[in-house]
Amino acid sequence: MIKDTIVAIASGQVNQAISIIRISGPEAFTTVAKIFKGRVGTTSREVTYGWIHNNGELIDEVLVLWFKGTNNFVGEDTVEINAHGGVLNTNLILELLLSQPHVRLAERGEFSRRSFLNGKMDLIKAQAIHDLIMARTKKQAQLSIKQFSGKTSIFINELINDLLNIIAIIEVNIDYPEYDDVEVLTTEVLLPKLEALLAKFEKTIEASERSRIIFEGIKVALVGTPNVGKSSLLNALIEQDKSIVSDVAGTTRDVVEASFVLSDIVFKLVDTAGVRKAKNKIEQIGIKKSLEQIEKASIVIHIIDATKQENEFDKLIQEHSKNKDYIKVYNKKDLNPSNFDASDKILISAKHKDISQLESYMKKHFVNKISENEEIISNTRSLSFIKSAFSYLKDAFLSLKNGFSPDIVIVDLTQSWKDLKTITGELTSDSLLDTIFANFCLGK
């Protein structure tokens, strides 16, 4: 049982219209009542008006929200003081609350942790709150809301129950074989059940891997021979001058990084040194880094000068780009290159920011592949446990297929079930909870 009372500013340390000071725990109501000149709330949800004072000295005019009992986000007595949004007066109220007996400053994410411990939400919802707060794009926010709404929790709990039912029937078959009213789980009966479960897991893992780019972004290497317009393309994509643009070949000798958002997906661009026969040691290092960036990138955009023939270094770039999403882009269309067949090619003018063909290609091949209707696990920790659960389930399936009896595979099935329970937080250590909630904001 939680015995201490915690307090923190929930609205951030900036001057704003309204600030919120949240206090939660067994002493929340009595603590606020000591410094509040107004009517104290008595029902489960109530708003009252008054003044915060320190021994009669008025500090601020406030609205106070009183949440009695468990019918609130935290799941225990909670009070939220809505004050004027000055940093000074907000901190004066916080200091006044902290001066009262049995009240301490909340740790990062402690209100959310109490909400989890009080059964108001599972870990999937808790992590979705954090993702929503940190969202940079509309897609990130939408995916976080979907998981916070409970749809993902329902899906995971369905998998948990499906596995538990199979485990329970196997155990009954082992311990009470004489029961006539229990389904007999032979290998022939069990294999299709596990196969159907594996298909659900596989579909979710594949969709989750695709959707990870919504939160993590896609790393894109801009590569090519010197002076083909790599830096100009980076500047055109991010709509500002980040890379040095010059007619002198080999201007970019180090890696330049920048990001831009296209259809709510973050693309992390890396502008690299031109690939050619190095003239000096510094340039040689830059070219080596360029080839290394190809290895690290998910997408390689190979820029080619449309006014010139491709050369051996373009072939070297293509060779290094095997097993990557590779896009060949022809630049300098503004120079009206002669004898150039533009059909089925991406033709741009980075200098004049005419890059619509490239953006359309990127939308079609990388953005539109993500379906928001599929079951998705965006959190890296949760996805790792889904994969682990899938692995144990697959081992059980293959063991059955290879002639092992159901009572042997129950060990793998149980471990798969435990991994799923870890995702929701039903089987989670205190140290793991510390790690998860430490990433939250103070006051959340």
From TrEMBL:
<dbReference type="Pfam" id="PF12631">
    <property type="entry name" value="MnmE_helical"/>
</dbReference>
<dbReference type="InterPro" id="IPR018948">
    <property type="entry name" value="GTP-bd_TrmE_N"/>
</dbReference>
<feature type="binding site">
    <location>
        <position position="120"/>
    </location>
    <ligand>
        <name>(6S)-5-formyl-5,6,7,8-tetrahydrofolate</name>
    </ligand>
</feature>
<feature type="domain" description="TrmE-type G">
    <location>
        <begin position="217"/>
        <end position="367"/>
    </location>
</feature>
<keyword id="KW-0819">tRNA processing</keyword>
<keyword id="KW-0479">Metal-binding</keyword>
<dbReference type="GO" id="GO:0005525">
    <property type="term" value="F:GTP binding"/>
</dbReference>
<feature type="binding site">
    <location>
        <position position="444"/>
    </location>
    <ligand>
        <name>(6S)-5-formyl-5,6,7,8-tetrahydrofolate</name>
    </ligand>
</feature>
<feature type="binding site">
    <location>
        <position position="252"/>
    </location>
    <ligand>
        <name>Mg(2+)</name>
    </ligand>
</feature>
<feature type="binding site">
    <location>
        <position position="22"/>
    </location>
    <ligand>
        <name>(6S)-5-formyl-5,6,7,8-tetrahydrofolate</name>
    </ligand>
</feature>
<dbReference type="GO" id="GO:0046872">
    <property type="term" value="F:metal ion binding"/>
</dbReference>
<feature type="binding site">
    <location>
        <position position="246"/>
    </location>
    <ligand>
        <name>K(+)</name>
    </ligand>
</feature>
<dbReference type="InterPro" id="IPR004520">
    <property type="entry name" value="GTPase_MnmE"/>
</dbReference>
<comment type="subunit">
    <text>Homodimer. Heterotetramer of two MnmE and two MnmG subunits.</text>
</comment>
<feature type="binding site">
    <location>
        <position position="80"/>
    </location>
    <ligand>
        <name>(6S)-5-formyl-5,6,7,8-tetrahydrofolate</name>
    </ligand>
</feature>
<feature type="binding site">
    <location>
        <position position="231"/>
    </location>
    <ligand>
        <name>Mg(2+)</name>
    </ligand>
</feature>
<dbReference type="InterPro" id="IPR006073">
    <property type="entry name" value="GTP-bd"/>
</dbReference>
<dbReference type="InterPro" id="IPR025867">
    <property type="entry name" value="MnmE_helical"/>
</dbReference>
<dbReference type="InterPro" id="IPR027266">
    <property type="entry name" value="TrmE/GcvT-like"/>
</dbReference>
<comment type="function">
    <text>Exhibits a very high intrinsic GTPase hydrolysis rate. Involved in the addition of a carboxymethylaminomethyl (cmnm) group at the wobble position (U34) of certain tRNAs, forming tRNA-cmnm(5)s(2)U34.</text>
</comment>
<keyword id="KW-0630">Potassium</keyword>
<dbReference type="GO" id="GO:0005737">
    <property type="term" value="C:cytoplasm"/>
</dbReference>
<feature type="binding site">
    <location>
        <begin position="246"/>
        <end position="252"/>
    </location>
    <ligand>
        <name>GTP</name>
    </ligand>
</feature>
<keyword id="KW-0963">Cytoplasm</keyword>
<dbReference type="GO" id="GO:0006400">
    <property type="term" value="P:tRNA modification"/>
</dbReference>
<feature type="binding site">
    <location>
        <position position="227"/>
    </location>
    <ligand>
        <name>K(+)</name>
    </ligand>
</feature>
<keyword id="KW-0460">Magnesium</keyword>
<dbReference type="InterPro" id="IPR005225">
    <property type="entry name" value="Small_GTP-bd"/>
</dbReference>
<protein>
    <recommendedName>
        <fullName>tRNA modification GTPase MnmE</fullName>
        <ecNumber>3.6.-.-</ecNumber>
    </recommendedName>
</protein>
<feature type="binding site">
    <location>
        <begin position="271"/>
        <end position="274"/>
    </location>
    <ligand>
        <name>GTP</name>
    </ligand>
</feature>
<keyword id="KW-0378">Hydrolase</keyword>
<comment type="similarity">
    <text>Belongs to the TRAFAC class TrmE-Era-EngA-EngB-Septin-like GTPase superfamily. TrmE GTPase family.</text>
</comment>
<dbReference type="InterPro" id="IPR031168">
    <property type="entry name" value="G_TrmE"/>
</dbReference>
<keyword id="KW-0547">Nucleotide-binding</keyword>
<feature type="binding site">
    <location>
        <begin position="227"/>
        <end position="232"/>
    </location>
    <ligand>
        <name>GTP</name>
    </ligand>
</feature>
<dbReference type="Pfam" id="PF01926">
    <property type="entry name" value="MMR_HSR1"/>
</dbReference>
<keyword id="KW-0342">GTP-binding</keyword>
<dbReference type="InterPro" id="IPR027417">
    <property type="entry name" value="P-loop_NTPase"/>
</dbReference>
<dbReference type="GO" id="GO:0003924">
    <property type="term" value="F:GTPase activity"/>
</dbReference>
<feature type="binding site">
    <location>
        <position position="251"/>
    </location>
    <ligand>
        <name>K(+)</name>
    </ligand>
</feature>
<dbReference type="Pfam" id="PF10396">
    <property type="entry name" value="TrmE_N"/>
</dbReference>
<feature type="binding site">
    <location>
        <position position="248"/>
    </location>
    <ligand>
        <name>K(+)</name>
    </ligand>
</feature>
